[in-house]
Design brief:
Structural class: alpha/beta
CATH architecture: 3-Layer(aba) Sandwich
Strand content: 15-25%
Radius of gyration: 16 Å
Helix content: 25-40%
CATH class: Alpha Beta
Number of helices: 6
Oligomer: single chain
Number of strands: 6
Bound molecules: flavin mononucleotide
Order of helices and strands: EHEHEEHHEHEH
CATH superfamily: Flavodoxin domain
Length: 180
Amino acid sequence: MHKRILVITASARPVSNSEILADEFARGAREAGHQVEKIRLRDKDMHFCNGCYDCEADEHRCSQHDDVAPILDKMADADVIVFATPIYFYEMSGRLKTLLDRTMPIYFRPCRFSEVYFIAAGTDSNETAMQAAINGVQAWISCFSDARLAGTIRGAGASMPGDARTHSAFHRAYVAGRSA
Ligand SMILES: Cc1cc2nc3c(=O)[nH]c(=O)nc-3n(C[C@H](O)[C@H](O)[C@H](O)COP(=O)(O)O)c2cc1C
């Protein structure tokens, strides 16, 4: 079955290791016949959740006017969501956490996605140094009853821009996309 795959990248850098891995995942997924769309959060106007609970009302829409609403619509309609983030102080980047906080409107709506992949890049060569970030995404996934963490791709030891191109995770990202 051909799937709708939404890739969301959350790095601050124009040459981003986590985005390089995400692009490789996307290449594999496209070759497998899936429909892939990428959203780069760095290019988006995205405010913090203000905790007002307006989204609990009938329409389940956020009252803020920025770029997040269409992203949420795409997330809700995707079969697969791929998050790609740098590791910042053992956690996901603030950009990604800000988006996850803003997903409250789709928490109240039916969502299609059942598989979530997590891609990360970090300087530390020890993969376990990414566990806090994975736990954070896993906790978010647990709020969506039909979703599961389908896989993680860890670019552990990728530091300088472009390091991911020669990292073993580069191939693993392609394979994961190909078999998504
Ligand atoms: C603010 C900041 C905090 C960081 N904290 C960590 C960390 O805790 N662990 C780690 O392995 N790398 C850390 N790094 C390094 C980045 O994760 C690494 O350079 C990664 O390749 C960046 O991915 P990107 O190119 O996709 O942005 C940090 C970098 C920055 C700028």
